[in-house]
Specification:
With 183 residues, this protein is α/β, with parallel strands linked by helices. The chain contains 4 helices and 7 strands.
Length: 183
């Protein structure tokens, strides 16, 4: 397995958030194999409990470049012969889970682990009736984990710093479905 790239405290927070009943989807850019194993285990647990396919039971989305050794889909896959596409050697295939690899950079989710390269606009939170995801370029989320202190918005609670420089913002608005699977 890959060596963790992020502090244990940060990965533990992502897994703790993922296990909450009000979190039905996670979008995470981290390439930590142990983190993804935990997320896939949560997905499979929920699939067994609900009888739904993994993606419907608990939606997982990774980075658009893929997760080598973790997710079966990756950029350039279609350039390989079809017999080399899915060999069963990724963590996703071994655990029977389903990780979406977006083509659009990042997907929204109940828990959105915000990528360092994506623009964030916290000034949007100053507007009347603002919602947490107004700062994320309208990528929906109920919880935003980001490696920046964006101040205390009126539309969310803030916890941090976590693992040195990360902050968790949780919407104070009623729950909204942020899963890309929603109808």
């Amino acid at each position: 397995m890959n060596r963790p790239q992020h502090p244990d405290e940060l990965c533990a927070l992502v897994l703790a958030m993922a296990s909450r009943e009000d979190v039905h989807s996670v979008s995470c850019q981290f390439g930590d194999a142990l983190l993804w194993e935990g997320l896939l285990n949560e997905q499979m647990k929920r699939a067994r409990q609900t009888g739904k396919p993994p993606r419907e039971a608990f939606y997982l989305s990774g980075p658009d470049g893929g997760l080598p050794g973790i997710a079966k889909h990756h950029s350039g896959l279609e350039d390989l012969p079809p017999e080399e596409w899915f060999t069963g050697d990724t963590l996703e295939e071994k655990l029977g889970g389903d990780i979406h690899i977006p083509y659009e950079g990042v997907c929204g989710a109940d828990l959105l682990v915000y990528p360092y390269w994506r623009v964030i606009a916290p000034q949007q939170w100053e507007k009347e009736g603002a919602q947490l995801d107004w700062a994320t370029g309208m990528k929906p989320c109920n919880h935003l984990l980001i490696e920046q202190d964006l101040g205390q918005p009126r539309c969310a609670t803030r916890i941090g710093p976590i693992a040195g420089s990360w902050w968790l913002y949780s919407s104070t608005a009623p729950y909204k479905d942020c899963s890309p699977n929603r109808p």
